[in-house]
Amino acid sequence: DGGNTWTDLGFALxxxxxVSRIAASKHEESRVYLTxxxxxxxxFTSYVYMSDDYGDSWKYLSGTLPSEPVNxxxxxxxxxxxxxxxxxxxxxxxxxxxxTFMLLDESMPRVPxxxxxxxxxxxxxxxxxxxxxxxxLDIEPxxxxxxxxxxxxxxxxxVGSKRYWDG
Length: 167
What we know:
The structure is a single chain. This protein is mostly beta strands. Helices cover 6% and strands 37% of the residues. The strands form 3 sheets. A 4-stranded antiparallel β-sheet has the order 1-2-3-4, with no helix packed on it. A hairpin with a 7-residue loop joins strand 3 (43-51) and strand 4 (59-60). The longest helix is centred in the last third of the chain and has 5 residues, at 140-144.
C-alpha cells in the first residue's frame, strides 16, 4: 500500500544484527535470501536464511559454513540450487540450495568478500574483495552440475571456443 503499513518479518530471526544482504530469487517469486552480520558485537556466527513464503518463515542455511561473518549471498540465474556466499574469509558455494556449503576456490586469498555479481550473458561470477581486487570465475560447469554428474564415475563437460589475445 505504498509504505503506509508494514509487517515485521524478523520475529524468528536473531535480534540486533546488521542486515548485510537481502536477495530476491530469480526462480520463485515467494523466495528471498537474507544474510545477517554480527561482527560489530564480536559475534562471528554465520547467518544465512531463506524464506519460501515471502518472509513469513525462515530456514537457517548456515549449518555447514564456518563461523565467520557473512556479507553477501547470490542465487544463480540458471540453476536455482546454486548459491554463492561471501564471508569475511572467502567465497563459498552450495549446489543443493543451501543445505551444504564448500569453499569455492582454495587458491583465492582468504580475504573479506563484500560483493558477488553474476554476469548472466557470460556466466561469470565476479567476486569483489576487500583489498585484493576482483576475481572472475566461469560458473557454467557449476550450473550444469546435477546429482547424476556427481555420482557418475566420469563426466565430460563441453568446452566452448575461447579467444586468445597475445597482447
